[in-house]
Amino acid sequence: MLKAHRNFAVNRITQASLINKPVPDWVGRDVFTLDSLQRLGKLEFGKNIEINLVLKVQKYACQHLYERPLSKEQQITIVDDTWRQVSATVANTTRLQDWLVSMSQLSVVIEPLELKVVIFERLESGMQLYNHN
């Protein structure tokens, strides 16, 4: 069983089809259905609009993007000793936005402007929570 084990980034699946093959007994019956994964927020069918993402990322925070690129077309260019610019075509999903918010101390969204505004508003909302307590 472990020889056949594979890890897949479920959030990067953009299309899927069902097959009539039995699921092994050790897999929960409703865990990996498309409906279940979508309810858990792991899939965002219908919302995955591709965007050309451009980020300014601190040098050391950018290292993992060499090993785990955001897309096949990802390009990383050196800005200076501290910063790198990352360009990639990605799906604009809630999970992407969550990741960008989590990287907010280490990166800045340059493009698209609409996404930059969304990330800024989410960060501002969090700051208001801290400022009022």
UniProtKB/TrEMBL annotation:
Residues covered by the WCX domain: 51-124
Organism annotation: Psychrobacter namhaensis
Entry-linked InterPro entries: WCX_dom
UniProt superkingdom: Bacteria
The protein, known as: WYL domain-containing protein
